[in-house]
Amino acid sequence: MSNTELGSSLGDSPSSRPDTLERLLTHYAAVSSDKIALIDPSNRNRLEGRSDNLPLRTYSFKALDAAVNRLATRLSALGLARGDYVAVQMPNFSETPIIVLALMRAGLVPCLLPLSWSNEEISHSFQRLKPKALISCGQLNDLNYSENMRDLAFSHMHVRFVMGVGYDIAEGVSDITPLFEPSDELDKSPPFAPPFESALSDLGLVTYIDPITPVPHNSGQILSSGLLHVLELQLSASDRILSAYPLSSIPGLAAHFYPWLMSGSCMTLHQPFDFSVLQEQMRATSFSYFAAPEQVMDYLLRNDLPVPQKLAIVRRDSHLPTCDLDILPSLDLYDLWNLGGLGSVPVKYQNLEPTGLFEDGRICLASATHQQLCLAGAEIINDRLHIKGRIFPDPSSLKTSLEWISLKKRVNDGWLDTGLTAFAGPDNTVLLGGEPVEELQKVAS
């Protein structure tokens, strides 16, 4: 489909343009309705301890959009106000991206809590944002997360609703599982029409550096991050993504969730990390892209397992390769740098030690083009990090199906605003972060 045809099919009204994640879903539901979009983990029944052995849940883009509409309609009927926070603690199950997209469509803000957090840690996170609703899964391994959320609601008076999805939802928790049933049949429920006009500056979701440090991400930052990964990794609708990083994390969002919707590809989920199941999934399906922590990638490479053509190794504290990557010359290898829980940058691996990224314990970017790393140049403008170069070309030059995503307000003479606070460091470097953290949050919001 050409850009002209795309514009005609979408119309000229802002509400019809796919310039948010949930609108991108609606776009693909219209132009690629029957294409498989999302697949559950193959071991889901065992993780939930089910005995009924349900078939593997698979969604087309049309069925996915219908499920998002149903949940958004239910959420809006609760009387929650636009901009209200909703805490979400879910595993890598198909319901998780549906919940996030439905909250966005209903004008609510998902606060993504790691599955590993205890009730005490979740309580700390509530003190800052005071979510009005909680959503979690039922039984998973030896824990029932809906019970935990119900108990937390008793001691936090700002919580008005507790919802659960999955198997064995606790008594007293609203079971919304039927809303997620995938079906390509004509949905008889009326289409959901958001009673507002969303913009790139609107708050999209919240992640956490730790329980007391929420980090807001607006729609423009989300699209910037996703588009950076799509362009650098050259993802397209024909790609098949295996997503094993928690969707509550920056790598899980930036490397999997955002690119999946922005490229219109297919995403299969894996609840991290079960190596035997991961091995089965790798052997059963021809995935083209996979990102995982360096320890997991090291296991796959050293055990001679089939791996996707595009691999992104998620780095945190080490900038040395975990194994000899020269044995895999045919693979498209990337390092994925997690910028302090705030964002991520994919860097093409060149069999060279990626120097210049770390200084005084902080992650930094060279202030001039760093050819060895294929990294963009970086510059500080108004105390925020701006980048340009081949990892993020000038948005005005893009000729893709995402032509309606307008990032022009975030571009200053070709430099793209990343939304990250930055300050000048020694030796002509740019350091990310800064103190105090509260100032960082103000800038990000």
Question: Mind explaining what this structure looks like?
Answer:
Strand 18 (about 360) and strand 19 (about 360-365) form a beta hairpin. The protein is built from 12 helices and 24 strands. The strands form 5 sheets. It has an 8-stranded mixed β-sheet. Strands 18, 19, 20, 21, 22, 23 and 24 form a 7-stranded antiparallel β-sheet that branches. The chain has about 450 residues and is an alpha/beta fold. Residues about 1-15, about 315-320, about 350-375, about 390-410 and about 425-445 have low confidence and may be disordered.
Average the pLDDT over all residues and give the rounded result. 77
Number of distinct beta strands: 24
- Sheet bearing the most strands, described? 8 strands, mixed
Strand % is 15-25%
Q: Distance between termini?
A: 36 Å
Radius of gyration over alpha carbons?
Answer: 21 Å
